[in-house]
Amino acid sequence: MTIMKKFIYKNRDVIIVSLVLIALLCIVFKDIIFSDYVFVRRDIARIFYPTRNFVAQELQAGRIPLWNPYIFCGIPLLANIHSSVFYPLSVIYYFMDVAKGLSLFIIFHIFLSGLFMYLFMKSLNISKSGSFLAGFSFAFSGYIMATINLMSVLCSVAWFPLVMLLFIKGIKEQKTTFSIWLGIVLVLMFLAGGPTITMATLAIMFLSSSYLVVERFIKTKNIDRFILYNILISSGLFLLLTAFQILPAIEYYAGTTRAK
Question: What is the mean pLDDT of residues 192-200?
Answer without folding.
Answer: 93
